[in-house]
Each structure stands twice: as structure tokens, then as C-alpha cells.
Write a structure and sequence with these properties.
- Pathway: Amino-acid biosynthesis; L-methionine biosynthesis via de novo pathway; L-homoserine from L-aspartate: step 3/3; Amino-acid biosynthesis; L-threonine biosynthesis; L-threonine from L-aspartate: step 3/5.
- The protein has 458 residues and is an alpha/beta fold.
- Helices cover 34% and strands 28% of the residues.
- It is built from 14 helices and 22 strands.
- The longest helix is centred in the C-terminal third of the chain and has 20 residues.
- The N and C termini lie far apart (59 Å).
- The structure holds nicotinamide-adenine-dinucleotide, L-homoserine (HSE) and sodium ion (NA).
- Sodium ion (NA) binds next to loops.
Length: 458
């Protein structure tokens, strides 16, 4: 059904006493996918129907649920999904033409992308939790929403229940964001927290995360930083009004983080976290965006250091507001469904009022800095010969690459001698060249730990 002419959403009627009242028809919602998140969306829509009606101004009617195996979805926590609502034909459901809202919680690129595009073309607004799709091809979705005059909301796609995209899109729309630094993957935070609190190695901590159901059987997306990189792309796009895709984000996972890295961090009053960092840097032609995901040491006094277990948090620094911290559960069916429902209410209100919320904001169109040009600091633990002049030679190597040293300390003596150097800020290119040069020196026996340091200015 063409949606060029808005369907009539309410009628003005006169009561017997002559007062007019508004009769509003229900808003029709279709759900795509009924797994961890989708099943909780159905539950909340059902259990909170009266409150949602009051908040939106019209009832939200669930008119279809696309699933792969209907026999698995009849009973959702005691609520019987009417059999006639379940369908295995998601494409037909989104194309039926009378939908107001479509919630996509299937995940992945296809068929999610085709279904979202069809939903928008057929006149529905869309709410999605799909970080992978938004980070790969958000601009296609935004353009389709713009063309259709409909909304595209996705709060659940980054840090689950934590309100962070709405603050960036709306609350901070009058400010100038400088940096967004977050722990946006619960699985890896659980593993690193375990390594920190118990001294175990990566493999053992991963096994425990898998036993407790935090990590998937194939943990690649979390452990190698792909999940966090997708979220970083979404955060950077919103914070800096620039299109940033997952492939623009520099990415290193946590598989190489060793028990001795964690112990070394502890020695200097720091903790290792997998950080997603989106910030403004200096490009050749002015300000540019830098977006990266990698393990880093942060001081234990930093707000992000207190984020334990599988929790998420996002630390935002902006010009006028200063420092803001958003903290909470970054995953799980019900917490993620909370974020989805929040978007559903907003989008439903907009449909009733025949207005749109904020669309894509990419007007700044900043360049994205390569990792080599990004400014950071390094912590380097160097196993060295314990003799006169070695410390001076190490310092000389840093100086030759234009990298200034902030602190240096010696651990152990003789065969166990180690120099632990923390640099001042320099480009990643200069810092990695320094480490490469150190590796060639005859007095260097091994470089046992190299890690970036974040959370302090100098
Ligand atoms: N689970 C979380 O904690 C969490 C947190 C934030 C965001 N998300 C995002 O939410 C989305 C859903 O995640 P989930 O954890 O609920 O996944 P899930 O695997 O539990 O559920 C997805 C469901 O979609 C179904 N499905 C697959 N293809 C389909 C198709 N063609 N038609 C109909 N149904 C189909 C699957 O059978 C499955 O039941 C993903 O984009 C994910 O990244 C999840
Ligand atoms: N796998 C993610 C949750 C979904 O984004 C995590 O571990 O945080
Ligand atoms: Na969120």
C-alpha cells in the first residue's frame, strides 16, 4: 500500500453532550525475530499494554511475529502468542502495507537489511537492535527512512539497556562532544575483570565466561573486538556527525592480553579494559575522527575502572557538559528489550502525530584518521641486560622517535632485569616504531608487554 497519503489515525467525534473526543485506532506493530530480545519485547508489550497505551496515546497492537520455527514460540514466559500471529514469511509480513511499526531483532546483515528497507518502503517506522547492520550499512537504512518519511531508531544496538544513543542524538545535540570512551562489550569485560581479580590467564577466564553463559561457544565476535568495533562506529557517527563504518574502526581484541600484562597494570595502579574510543583528532585539513577498539590500561581511579563483571559503561567528554558517565547492563534479553520498547514508544508517538524524529546527522563529514596518526600513550615492559648504559640507550631510542618518557622503573636484577617505561602522548606510528627499534637492540632480551595507556591527559 502506498503511504504517500498518511492513513487517518484519529477521528474527531461528538459525544451526546456535544463535547468532541478523539478516537484513535491502534498502531500496528510487527516483530521480526523472537529470540532472547524478541521474546522479551513480546512479554513487555503484553504485560505493559495499558501503560504503553497511556504513554503513546493509542494502543500498540502486535499483528505479526516472524520466526524461523513457530513451534518454539507459542509460549513466552506464560504468555501464549496467538498461533495466527506467527509466520515464517518475514518478507510478506513487512510488505503487507498496513504496519505502523516494525521491530527487527533477527540480527546480522541479510535478511535483516532487506526486511528493514521493505518495512520503510511500505510505510512503517523501524526500531532495531542490529549493531552489525548499522555499522556496516547504516547510511542505506537512513536514506530509506528519509525517503519514506519514517523513523529509524536503534538505542538497543549499543550498550543494551544503557541510554547512550538518545543522549548523543538529542540531549547533547547542543554541545560539542570531544571524546566517547566506553566499555561496550560485556563478555570481554567479564574475562578481563576475572583476570584482574583472580590472576588467571586469558584461556581460563574465557572458559569460565563460557560456562556461565556470558561468552558464546564461538567467542570470536566478542573476544576479537568485532562487536565493540561495530558499536564504536555507531557511537562515533552520532558523536561527530560523520559517517563512520565498522571498517573505519581500528580493532585489536583481548586474546593476547596475558596475566603478566594484567599484573603489570596492577603494579602501576591501573587495570586492563577493552575500550572503544571515539575522539576528535587533528587531520591534515583540520579536525578528524579517530575510532579504535583495543585493550588499554586505565588508572584504577578512572570511572571506567570500576565497571566490573559483564557491565557496560560509556564515558562522554563534551565541551560544555564536561564529563558524563552512562552505566548499566549492556546485554541480556530483558534489558535490551527495555531499550527497544523505549524506542517503540517514541516512534509510536511520532506516528500518531505524523512527525519524524531525528534522522541521520552526517553534515560534519569529517575525515577518519588512520590509527598511525592517532595520539595515545604506551606502556612497554622490556627484559634487558642489567648493565651500565642500558637505561640511557632505551631512553635514547624513545628520543630518536620523538617520544617523550613519562615514567621508567626497573623491576628485578641480573637475568630478571626489566625496564617498565610509560610514555607521554605521541602518535601510534611513532610509538610502534619505537617498540620495533627496541626489539633490534642487543641489550633487549624480550619485550614482554606492550599496551596502550588511556584515561589521563599527559
Ligand atoms: N542478546 C543481547 O543481549 C543483545 C544485546 C544488544 C543487542 N542485541 C541485538 O539484538 C538482535 C537479536 O539478538 P538476540 O540475542 O535476540 O538473538 P537470538 O539469536 O536469540 O534471536 C534471533 C532470532 O531470530 C530468528 N531468525 C533468524 N532468521 C530469521 C528470519 N529470516 N525470520 C524470522 N526469524 C529469524 C532466530 O531463529 C532467532 O530466534 C541482534 O541484532 C543482536 O545483536 C542483542
Ligand atoms: N555480546 C555482547 C552483547 C550484545 O551486544 C556482549 O558481550 O556485550
Ligand atoms: Na543503549
Amino acid at each position: 500500500m502506498a503511504h504517500d497519503e498518511p492513513r487517518k489515525r484519529s477521528d474527531r467525534r461528538s459525544d451526546d453532550d456535544g463535547r468532541t473526543r478523539t478516537v484513535t485506532r491502534p498502531l500496528r506493530l510487527a516483530l521480526l525475530g523472537c529470540g532472547s530480545v524478541g521474546s522479551q519485547v513480546v512479554r513487555l508489550l503484553h504485560e505493559q499494554a495499558d501503560d504503553l497505551t497511556a504513554r503513546v496515546g493509542a494502543p500498540i497492537e502486535l499483528v505479526g511475529v516472524a520466526v524461523r520455527r513457530p513451534e518454539l514460540h507459542r509460549d513466552l514466559g506464560g504468555y501464549q502468542v496467538p498461533a495466527e500471529l506467527l509466520t515464517t514469511d518475514a518478507a510478506a509480513l513487512v510488505a503487507r502495507g498496513d504496519l505502523d511499526l516494525v521491530v527487527e531483532v533477527i540480527g546480522g546483515i541479510e535478511p535483516a537489511r532487506a526486511l528493514i528497507l521493505s518495512a520503510l518502503e511500505n510505510g512503517a517506522s523501524v526500531v532495531t537492535a542490529n549493531k552489525a547492520l548499522l555499522a556496516e550499512d547504516g547510511s542505506t537504512l537512513f536514506a530509506a527512512a528519509e525517503k519514506a518519511g519514517r523513523d529509524l531508531y536503534f538505542e538497543a544496538s549499543v550498550a543494551g539497556a544503557i541510554p547512550i544513543l538518545r543522549p548523543l542524538r538529542e540531549s547533547l545535540a547542543g554541545d560539542r562532544v570531544r571524546r566517547v570512551m566506553g566499555i561496550v562489550n560485556g563478555t570481554t569485560n567479564f574475562i578481563l575483570d576475572k583476570m584482574d581479580s583472580s590472576g588467571t590467564g586469558f584461556a581460563e577466564a574465557l572458559e569460565e565466561a563460557q560456562e556461565l553463559g556470558y561468552a558464546e561457544a564461538d567467542p570470536t565476535a566478542d573476544v576479537e573486538g568485532y562487536d565493540a568495533a561495530a558499536k564504536a562506529a555507531i557511537l562515533a557517527s552520532l558523536a561527530f556527525h560523520t559517517r563512520v563504518t565498522a571498517s573505519d574502526v581500528y580493532r585489536e581484541g583481548i586474546a593476547e592480553v596475558s596475566a603478566s600484562d594484567v599484573a603489570s597494570a596492577r603494579e602501576m595502579g591501573a587495570v586492563v579494559k577493552l575500550l572503544a574510543i571515539c575522539e576528535l583528532g587533528e587531520g591534515r585539513d583540520g579536525p578528524a575522527v579517530a575510532a579504535r577498539v583495543h585493550p588499554a590500561m586505565i588508572p584504577r581511579t578512572h570511572p571506567l575502572a570500576s565497571v566490573r563483571e559483564a557491565y557496560n559503561a560509556v564515558f562522554v567528554e563534551s565541551e560544555a557538559a564536561g564529563q558524563l558517565m552512562f552505566y548499566g547492563p549492556g546485554a541480556g534479553g530483558a534489558p535490551t528489550a527495555s531499550a527497544v520498547l523505549g524506542d517503540v514508544v517514541t516512534v509510536a508517538r511520532n506516528r500518531l502525530a505524523d512527525v519524524r524524529g531525528a534522522g541521520e546527522s552526517a553534515y560534519a563529514a569529517l575525515d577518519v584518521l588512520p590509527m598511525g596518526q592517532t595520539v595515545t600513550r604506551y606502556h612497554v615492559a622490556i627484559d634487558v641486560d642489567d648493565r651500565t648504559g642500558v637505561l640511557a640507550a632505551v631512553a635514547q631510542t624513545f628520543a630518536e622517535h620523538g617520544v617523550s618518557i613519562r615514567t621508567v622503573r626497573q623491576e628485578g636484577h641480573g637475568d630478571d632485569a626489566q625496564l617498565v617505561v610509560v610514555s607521554h602522548r605521541a602518535t601510534d606510528e611513532a610509538l610502534s616504531a619505537t617498540v620495533a627499534a627496541l626489539r633490534t637492540k642487543d641489550f633487549v632480551r624480550d619485550i614482554s608487554s606492550v599496551m596502550r595507556v588511556e584515561g589521563e591527559e599527559s
